[in-house]
Amino acid sequence: MKYALLILLGLLQTQLFANPEITVDITDESGFTAMHPYARVIKDDSSRIMIDELIEGRHDNRWQPLDESASFGFYEGTVWVRFTVHNPSPLPLKSFLQIGCAILSDITLYEVADHRVLREKVGGLKYPGRPNYDVNNRIPTYVLALDPGQTKTIYLRAASSYPFELPTHIMDRATFAKRASGDRLAFGLFMGVVLVMALYNLVIFGVLNDRVYLYYSLTILCTHFGAIMGSFGILHAYMASLVPHYSNELIVIAEGASCFFGVYFFLAFLRAENEMPRMYRMFRIWAAASFIAMVLPFFYFNLYVTMFANFVVQSILAAIFVVSFWMSYKGHQRSFRFFFAWSFFLISASVYMLKTQGFIPTNFWTSYSPIFGGVLEVVLLSLALVDRLNESRREKTRVQETLISTQKAISKELEQKVAEKSYQLQENIDSIQQILDHVPVGILSVLPGLKTDERCSTYARDFFGIERGQTLDIELDFAARLTLSPDRRARMLEAIRASLGESIFTFEINLGQLPHEVCYHSPHGRTHEIELNWTAILGSDDQVARIMLTIVDNTELAQAQKNAEQESLSRNTLGEMMLQKSQRIHTFLASCG
Q: Checking CA distances to 175, which of 80, 267, 417, 470 falls within 20 to 30 Å?
């Protein structure tokens, strides 16, 4: 019994006096003071505790020490933090109270002295426009004023739609100015690097029209300007006023957009659509999920939407890491470069998420890991894209060399075939010329300009009195010597001009204007009765390229026909005369009898 009472007394003593709340003295030379050793915390699952209840001490038994990480992860309720500060100097004091978490949807500061609220400051991401803090900074920053010898108890009421933490610090004016200046310089350099890389790749996209550079620019803009800068408060401090009604949702929207464009950048970088169609279809499903995570906050937003977006982001990061590692292991060179660059960002993003959700401690390296990993990832991926561009140029050069060699081979083969065809064609031309030399018909080809081809039959050359290789002017050497009226001759020449270079249908229409039987007065003074036959010769474009004119000299045949008709007429006349004499003799004999 005695030992049981001693144990019970020890437990009570531990409960009552462990981690007693300490008042912190603040001076102008306090520098940087972390408040977690002096602060207490209450997790209010129902979000119903009011400040008056805490001042009256109704929940004193629920205050717990605030651990160093001050991380609460995904928490649907409200968190209260309390600590007490004192100004021991004889002068008024102004210090800066800073909460190292930029993604608080609702944060309220209460300054309490003598059991009454001296000041209440309401702010957070869920309020339109910029968060309502004392100082326009990327994280909640308040001016803490203390009169000489004054003591204040500070209460912080916080809630968030994101996994959050509440690392609280108090700084004097010089320390705050130094840290804020370094903070702005570091983030300015980071954003400058990201912006330069994004614009550089957009320029390359405009020159090469390769979508991988567009996807990369959009990915790093959404990831680093949106998600990372939003998580560090830069987006809300300086750009939330552009979209005041969605300031609380901006990080989730940016995360969804960065994953959406990141998936397509990954697929385009590896040329997965053509080389890995199954993986391409699988990652398009993840792209659809990230698109839902991007669009959903515009219509409905709470903690579970953030958890869904967080799950999509982590699964996509893990999938890209595993696939790129596996393909690198298989010897895919482009995958190795992507895996090497992506690893830095994946590790840094995972470290930051684990820190935010309370699984690893909060320190300088874990707090700023996305900045370090983001810079390395942007630089390495840009170098990988440059290497990819050089590889594309080398591949293009190889293709061009292959095409040139193939073209030379084809040209050589074509030259041989052309030589063979030319030889065969020359043989055909010689055969045609032999036929033309022996055919007893005049054959000419009428070309545009009313000139004849050099090739014509021997009979035609003899008929017109021209030498081999000499051409004939249809209008002067042929049409002018035909026994046609001037009007009929003009219509014939116009019909020939209108038919050359036109369709066969046009030739058939004009064929009625071309003579078929006519007399020709040769330069030797002879008149020939000739028969003309007009035939259209079509070119490769199915237009009339030339008109073949066939000339048959019917002069001797017509003369023979005339002689035969005269002989037949003489015979008929002689027969009639003999018939008349026979009739007269017969009549005379009949009268004598």
A: 80
